[in-house]
Amino acid sequence: MELIVYLAGQIHDDWREQFRQKAKERGLPLILKGPQENHDRSDDIGEQIKGKQPNPVYRDQAASEFNNLRTRIWMEKADVVIALFGEKYRQWNTAMDAATAIQSGKPLILVRPEGLVHPLKELAQRAQVVVETPDQALDALAYVLE
Amino acid sequence: MELIVYLAGQIHDDWREQFRQKAKERGLPLILKGPQENHDRSDDIGEQIKGKQPNPVYRDQAASEFNNLRTRIWMEKADVVIALFGEKYRQWNTAMDAATAIQSGKPLILVRPEGLVHPLKELAQRAQVVVETPDQALDALAYVLE
Amino acid sequence: MELIVYLAGQIHDDWREQFRQKAKERGLPLILKGPQENHDRSDDIGEQIKGKQPNPVYRDQAASEFNNLRTRIWMEKADVVIALFGEKYRQWNTAMDAATAIQSGKPLILVRPEGLVHPLKELAQRAQVVVETPDQALDALAYVLE
Amino acid sequence: MELIVYLAGQIHDDWREQFRQKAKERGLPLILKGPQENHDRSDDIGEQIKGKQPNPVYRDQAASEFNNLRTRIWMEKADVVIALFGEKYRQWNTAMDAATAIQSGKPLILVRPEGLVHPLKELAQRAQVVVETPDQALDALAYVLE
Amino acid sequence: MELIVYLAGQIHDDWREQFRQKAKERGLPLILKGPQENHDRSDDIGEQIKGKQPNPVYRDQAASEFNNLRTRIWMEKADVVIALFGEKYRQWNTAMDAATAIQSGKPLILVRPEGLVHPLKELAQRAQVVVETPDQALDALAYVLE
Amino acid sequence: MELIVYLAGQIHDDWREQFRQKAKERGLPLILKGPQENHDRSDDIGEQIKGKQPNPVYRDQAASEFNNLRTRIWMEKADVVIALFGEKYRQWNTAMDAATAIQSGKPLILVRPEGLVHPLKELAQRAQVVVETPDQALDALAYVLE
Amino acid sequence: MELIVYLAGQIHDDWREQFRQKAKERGLPLILKGPQENHDRSDDIGEQIKGKQPNPVYRDQAASEFNNLRTRIWMEKADVVIALFGEKYRQWNTAMDAATAIQSGKPLILVRPEGLVHPLKELAQRAQVVVETPDQALDALAYVLE
Amino acid sequence: MELIVYLAGQIHDDWREQFRQKAKERGLPLILKGPQENHDRSDDIGEQIKGKQPNPVYRDQAASEFNNLRTRIWMEKADVVIALFGEKYRQWNTAMDAATAIQSGKPLILVRPEGLVHPLKELAQRAQVVVETPDQALDALAYVLE
After folding, report:
1. Who contacts H104 (Cβ-Cβ below 8 Å, separation ≥6)?
2. What is the ipTM for the molecules in this complex?
């Protein structure tokens, strides 16, 4: 039986690609979904579909319609959500996705480096699993599938 | 009929106190709840109740149990949630509370300065109301109560 | 025990005022809520709170944030929803409120003149009660309270 | 992974047929469902199954039982709902389906020409995505599936 | 703290009146609601509000709109439902109300004479409490309130 | 796409067998489930699994555990429920299943002969579709699948 | 604003009485509910209401109908649940009540002595707050009410 | 159509292995899931993934994150839950899983020896089926699948 996993979190490096590769190598029956990983495409999608917007605020608003559509559809189908926080960005989307998972009754695996323990303490306390690396998150899914 | 409002957001200035004061001056029938506003008490509450913890990580974890208890009880009772973001902090708690409100079907009033439009665009797109100041949030509640 | 009633529907005549008056005369313990009935205020509220918008589309969008906030808060509290359709307008808000009530599990009293039977047939078929005048809706509430 | 899409909206032209064709050409894994598109069959279905009704009101009521059955079953299975409004009709069914989707937590893509911005502003404000043409709605689904 | 109790079941004798009287004598803080107990009024209410209907089938249908409105509003508010079955009638409304309570997560007290054990066995097996007399149901509520 | 249909109702004739046969002849993609149709097995199942019970009351109670298990599992999976009432029996199980479907948000097709219009009027008023024969119910499903 | 608290857990000592007393001394606006604390009454209640049962198994079953009725009604009304485990008993009711609270979305305060850490680790991990004494649970509620 | 069954309960003997073997022999279309059955692995999993913990309390807490992740994911997918209690252990996890199933609306088959009737009476009273051996639970599932 396959599990559907939503990979929330930063889109500034290739952690999802690595995650997919490792899941494949371990032969885990996971269907991995996530946000648009091409950052420019993610910011431009509003104007690409709806056309030129009057200013940057409306450009952002238009893009977020489509990014939220994508997130809502895949998160609704997910059996479990992984949310990865990194040191560099504010990543409010990640926090939004993580809280949405918790409030929807979907188990959340929170991945965050040690340096973020304090600012993420309330979110961590409500997550199902808290680890420091994506590899540990993969270990957790492998354990579920044993 | 009174409305219960949860005031999520940063606890580093006195915006809630001002909000309460203005609501009172306008005679609005609002019951205003929120997180612990004494920052030290918020960080210490775990050790104050459970005793000395082995290290800062567990100290944070202990505190978050009680802060989350408080948030969950009052948010569950709220008719509407106001989430205020400021320029300075990462405020992942605020994002968590905002997303919890959305996913619970509670209307969310997002308050954020113009400078945060881009990083908060996805959250803003799912909020019921987006404004820039707490005074505008109060105007919105006054309109509901007309 | 009081019942909370949300009065959805057109805001172009004074049917709510008459409804309130008659409920009072019959001594029914009803708390009556509804949308903003001052039509200009309803259309202007976005700019009154958020300031001048760049064009009529954004002006409408801003107004609807606050009108929806009001509707969501009071409909969530309602025990029963009355939706009145008249001959003249498209009244998609009324249809939206009526369907929201049905899908929320709240009983709906649909009020519509005989001339609207055909276009409203699917909505009528899912309503709890279908009548032709507000007075009949009031009779229905009186029956519940006997 | 396939997505199930419910195509709510007017049944007076062949927009669904075109939509299906284009989805196929782009190779999108979509299962497209919708109301009965044969308008006469939609109006007659009550009498075709239950037999002759005493008058047009009961004829309409009988038809709506079966049309609502169809809509409820497919909307319940849908991952996302597209609601198309055109200039000509009152289309209260479309508004009902759109609001049902929102209240069910299903993301809604609202398609409406520029001329309908004002009367649809409240519904638009609660939709996940608002566009002007079915092609843009298809672009949005393609983006989700990238 | 008061409990709201919905008294489902036959409307052919005065068991509710006796129940109310005994609850009062024992000083139990119960708010007791139920269907219309005047049987003629219950059957006539459709025509009394909507006017003369074309035949008995439509007369029944009209009455049931208002009886269902009443039941839905009060059952939604109830903390607990009592459903009384007697030997004489088919009482499908009682079975409907009992199953609605179970499926809504409201505890159900089923009252039925020994002679109805076999036909009611599946309903009894899902009730929270099964007794043979209204007095026993009152004892159960008194126990809850101790 | 297949639809799962739960066939609630009397188990005293072979209407389900005929229904299955006709669905097959029409090539409808339906998965048809229902209660145990062997009446003796249905009454004996408690003692067959749990062993001899002390008296008929406990024998009935034991049987109903397993009959309810079966009903709950298949109804939960059903997309639509058909409930058939006949003239002869009290059929409280059928009323229980019908109300459970309504309260779960599953569309209900009620099948009942004309002679049962009055006692079933409240249940009929909340069903999605009301017809008089199983063939009409099959027509309704065929219409959904067109 | 008062909070309703359900005090789940063992009924073999007077911890609830002490809890009530201390809450009163501290002036906390708490409404405290819980199971029947008279152990004999709790075991006898089935026969006291329904009469002599054939054997101890049915006696237990009868009692549990009424104890569960009580628990379900008050837990449903509670804002927060406290579950106290002691060293001596198996207390499966306490575990049932605690898990019911978690699954209902009600925050749970788990109170257990250090010696029970290992067998309660999975329950503790899902609780909102974990402490060792009722006094600490009261501190937690006082913090919420600050 | 396959049914997914979650096998909650003690992990100290091989009852699940026997259950799987017998289900296979009878050709029942069951997908059987459950907790980690290797007891040492279950206790060690926290440190195996997260690394050495400071003391046994944190070791237990770490393990329970992963065990709860596994339980939540599979229970959410289950159509029915079997919970087996044996004489020897406190098995609070089993009670937690059983109550979670009840509160989630999933039917529960409780398996417990006669000696545990009294301490499990409240849980038994809310289960859908209560039997004494795993073989009887398998009989129940076979009956559902007839």
Report:
1. G103, H75, H76
2. 0.95
